[in-house]
Design brief:
Number of strands: 0
Largest sheet: none
Number of domains: 1
Strand content: under 5%
Distance between the termini: 27 Å
Length: 60
């Protein structure tokens, strides 16, 4: 898993929904990802880092 290689602060979701990835058809699948992260034991801070904090830090 990527979290074994880098700190969670360096993990982010891409928005490449044009065929390069087949995880979701569109952004409506993000709620399923959030639920899966919760079920795998990620806490709110970690999920926020993955879902938005990392990209906001890079954009700033």
């Amino acid at each position: 898993m990527i979290f074994d290689v880098v700190a969670i602060e360096h993990v982010d979701l891409g928005s490449d929904f044009d065929g390069a990835a087949t995880v979701f058809d569109d952004v409506s699948g993000l709620s399923s990802l959030t639920q899966a992260l919760m079920e795998d034991g990620f806490d709110k801070k970690e999920i926020m880092a993955i879902m938005e904090s990392s990209v906001l830090r890079v954009l700033r």
